[in-house]
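pinging the channel bc i need a second pair of eyes. not urgent but kinda urgent?? the chain im working w is below, pasted from the shared doc
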Amino acid sequence: MIFSEEQIKDITEDIHIGMKCFIRKSDQKIIKTTDWDDPYFDQSAWEKEDIQQMEDIQNNLLAYHEILKMPSHEAFEVMENFADAVEDHRLKNSLMAALNKRKPFAHFKNVVDYSDYRSAWFEFRDQAQRDWVRKQIRGFSE
C-alpha cells in the first residue's frame, strides 16, 4: 500500500483528534469516521451516508484495516526521546523530572508548553506519530 505524505499527515491528524481511520482492503480507500464508542458520540449529528458507512465497517470488520492511535507506552517513549535530544540541560532535566512524576503526560506538556522548544516538540511528536501510522500501513501489506 502506498499513500502520499499528505494522506499520512491527514490520517495522523484525524487519529490525534479522536477519529477512527480505516483502509478498505478491496480498493485501499481511506475511510474516516467518528469514534462510535465515544460516550459523547451523537449519531443525530451525522449524515445518513456516514452512519451507513460506519455500520458497514462494524458489520464487516474483516474487510478493513483499522489504523490505531499510538499506545500510551509508545507516546511516553516519544517524550523520553525528545527530552534526550534537548540540548538545554535545564530543560532536559525538567522534562525528565516531569516524566518521573505521577501524570507524566500532563507534567511534560506543562514544561514544554512554557519553553522555547514548544514548536520543536510538536514537530518531533507529529513526525513520530506519522512514522507510527506508516509502520501500521506497511504491516498491512505483509
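so The longest strand covers residues 20-24. and The CA atoms of residues 22 and 31 lie 5 Å apart. — does that match what u expected or am i reading it wrong
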